[in-house]
Design brief:
- The structure holds 2 protein chains of 2 kinds.
- Chain A has 2 domains: about 230 residues, Rossmann fold; about 100 residues, Beta Barrel (OB fold (Dihydrolipoamide Acetyltransferase, E2P)).
- Helices cover about 25% and strands about 30% of the residues of chain A.
- Chain A is built from 8 helices and 19 strands.
- In chain A, the strands form 4 sheets. Chain A has a 6-stranded mixed β-sheet with strand order 6-7-8-3-9-10, with helices on both faces.
- The longest helix of chain A is centred in the middle third of the chain and has 18 residues.
- The relative contact order of chain A is 0.12.
- Chain B has a single domain, classed as MetI-like fold.
- By secondary structure, chain B is mainly α.
- Classes of the chains: A alpha+beta, B mainly alpha.
- The interface between A and B is medium-sized, with 35 and 31 residues.
- The complex binds adenosine-5'-triphosphate and magnesium ion.
- The site of adenosine-5'-triphosphate has 13 residues of chain A, from helix 1.
Chain lengths: ~350, ~270
């Protein structure tokens, strides 16, 4: 794919957003998105993901003082139609009065591209998204997945400087979501385009993002690679929002951490009272005499490939572990755990 | 399935009511094409009366057509953009304007006419021209156009469609003409049929606003009922029905603004009906 437009970096500088009804959707936000990078904005409903995306797109303007830069270009005062961005909406936003082909050609038509070149570009897009056989269909004759493919083709047909996607897969069922996610991932890598992808689904974020920006109440909670976010959450919000996390309290002394459920090897500094975190998959169920921690089964859920076990007596809250062992866990039974030594995390 | 006695009772009653309404129409049409109403059909069928109506009242027919077409143009030029702006603005002012626009529907035509005469009756040239009637018709029919377009605009997410078009580089006017208007087609069509039908058939308001030189078809009809032979009046009614019936039938067919094709995605493989 010959992407003629060079990919560019995006910078948001101190972009806040207060809506006319007084809603403060964004606190001043500074964000750097490198050229060719896929950044995922992740966070709970209402945290300001869409607002951030719309500020980048030019559908909302930031409060005075905020600045949006595309490469060297200050686009803060440019309306969306002059920014040359590709946008994919959750509701697809395909034009019902046009065929698939006409939808994909729309951006080229308004740019007054010559007909033969336009036809060539549309054919290329249809081929790339594997929807050539749908070219003449009307939009209401398409399935959800097909619609999203058309929406993607339409957005990239104009060779935008950046591609912006707002929960593009949320309206689809789980299986299709998985498949299209892989396709979008390949597409973004192939194009090498700067992309901002909004989602509230952490699996999607982990799979697609070069970097993830976790947002909370109009602020950035943490920015980092998926690994950073998952293994080194920098605050309680991120730790709780991403995946499942277990919390233990204890006292650290001479390389050992004493908790309510037992003693753990500890490589961190001594401390009187400290909270440590670990992921369910880092705990292993072992025989009681080999265990570091002991607790009692509260409940267990068979998930097919593994069993999820909830334990009490270890931390203040229930501890969740997962195991592939093919055994039953009776309620009340005593269970022993060991935890991978490098899996213990602390928040600053 | 066997039909019960109740069904036939219902059917009979419905037919009876229909006959009650339709028979006078047929009698009137018949009167318009018989030589002599008092002698009945045996006096012979003729188009003489229709011809006479044409000689006497052709100008009222032309005026009705002229007014309804210009009224439609005015409603399209004012009503469609107005509906778009109202649908786009979410504030209280927009809602108040929307309600105000609908107000004339609730006000009798006579009141509109009276208000117009009080306000503009002093401008003699205006008062005596057909434009005076046109203004009344526009005031009376505009809400129907706005309502109809508003209904179709609220049936699809036109704001997001517009944002999609803008992201692809379309300017405001490009968006308006290539995305908004085509998707409002059904509402505009329904509104247009409504406006033309109402304008052609409007009597109350027009009767107040007309002058002897600016008679529309319905006003002429009333005039002929009062002063002409029954056969002429009937033939005139026939002409009126020939004009208005196709409009009414079209209104029945296309009068409901249809949902813009934007519903649930079809399941893969299945093709939605077209
Ligand atoms: N046009 C608007 N007027 C007033 N408030 C708004 C407007 N748009 C968004 N908001 C508010 O701003 C906040 C952030 O909204 P935003 O749409 O950015 O959230 P989000 O993270 O995209 O959430 P979701 O996952 O539900 O889409 C919310 O509290 C929302 O109610
Ligand atoms: Mg959102």
């Amino acid at each position: 794919m010959n992407q003629s437009t060079q990919s560019i970096d995006i910078r948001l500088i101190e972009c806040a957003k207060t809506f006319s009804d007084g809603t403060r959707a964004l606190e001043p936000l500074t964000l750097q998105i490198e050229a060719g990078e896929t950044v995922v904005l992740l966070g709970p409903s209402g945290c300001g993901k869409t607002t951030t995306l719309r500020i980048i797109a030019g559908l909302e303007s930031p409060d005075p003082g905020g600045q949006v830069l595309f490469g060297q270009d200050d686009v803060t005062n440019q309306p969306i139609e002059r920014r040359n961005v590709g946008m994919v909406f959750q509701s697809y936003a395909l034009f019902p009065n046009m065929s698939v082909e006409q939808n994909i050609a729309y951006g080229l038509t308004v740019r007054k591209m010559a007909n033969d070149e336009k036809a060539r570009r549309v054919a290329e897009m249809l081929d790339m998204m594997q929807i050539t056989e749908l070219a003449g269909r009307r939009i209401d004759q398409l399935s959800g997945g097909q619609r999203q493919r058309v929406a993607l083709a339409r957005a990239i047909a104009v060779r935008p400087r950046v591609l912006l996607l707002d929960e593009p897969l949320t309206a689809l069922d789980a299986l299709l979501r998985e498949r299209l996610r892989v396709e979008i991932d390949q597409l973004l890598r192939e194009l090498g385009i700067t992309a901002v992808y909004v989602t509230h689904d952490q699996n999607e974020a982990m799979a697609l993002g070069d970097r993830i920006v976790v947002m909370d109440k109009g602020m950035v909670a943490q920015t980092g690679t998926p690994q950073d976010i998952y293994y080194k959450p920098s605050n309680a919000f991120v730790a709780d929002f991403i995946g499942t996390i277990n919390r233990l309290r204890g006292t650290a002394n001479k390389g050992m951490l004493q908790t309510a459920g037992g003693k753990l090897p500890w490589s961190g500094p001594d401390a009187g009272d400290i909270e440590v975190l670990f992921r369910p998959e880092d705990a292993t169920i072992v025989a009681l005499d080999a265990a570091e921690l002991r607790g009692h089964v509260v409940a267990s859920y068979f998930l097919g490939d593994r069993t999820k076990v909830l334990l009490d007596g270890i931390g203040e809250q229930t501890v969740v572990v997962e195991t592939a062992d093919r055994r039953q866990f009776a309620k009340g039974a005593e269970i022993g755990l060991i935890i991978k030594p490098d899996a213990l995390m602390t928040l600053e | 399935m066997r039909r019960s006695g109740i069904f036939y009772l219902n059917l009979g009653f419905t037919l009876l009511v229909c006959a009650f309404l339709i028979v006078p129409v047929f009698l009137s049409i018949k009167a318009g094409v018989t030589e002599n109403f008092f002698q009945g059909v045996k006096s012979g069928l003729t188009l003489r009366w229709v011809g006479e109506v044409w000689e006497l009242y052709a100008d009222t027919i032309y005026l009705s057509l002229l007014i309804s077409i210009t009224c439609l143009i005015a409603d399209l030029l004012i009503g469609v953009p107005a509906a778009y702006v109202l649908a786009k603005k979410s504030g209280r002012t927009a809602r108040i304007i929307e309600e105000t626009l609908v107000l004339p529907i609730a006000i009798p035509g006579l009141a509109i006419a009276l208000a117009l005469i009080i306000t503009y009756g002093g401008f003699r040239d205006f008062r005596t021209s057909w434009l005076f009637i046109l203004v009344g018709h526009v005031l009376y029919t505009l809400p129907f156009m706005v309502r109809s377009v508003l209904a179709v605009l609220s049936s699809f997410d036109f704001k997001t469609l517009e944002e999609g078009a803008a992201s692809l580089g379309a300017s405001f006017w490009q968006r308006f003409f290539t995305v908004i208007l085509p998707n409002c087609r059904s509402g505009i069509l329904a509104g247009s049929l409504m406006v033309v039908t109402l304008s052609v058939g409007e009597f109350n308001l027009t009767w107040m606003l007309h002058t002897p030189l600016t008679k529309t078809l319905p006003v002429g009809l009333a005039d002929s009922y009062a002063s002409m032979r029954l056969e002429v009046a009937s033939a005139y009614t026939l002409v009126f029905m020939v004009m208005i019936l196709p409009l009414l039938i079209a209104l029945q067919l296309y009068g409901q603004p249809r949902e813009v094709g934007h519903g649930k995605p079809a399941t893969p493989g299945s093709r939605a009906s077209s």
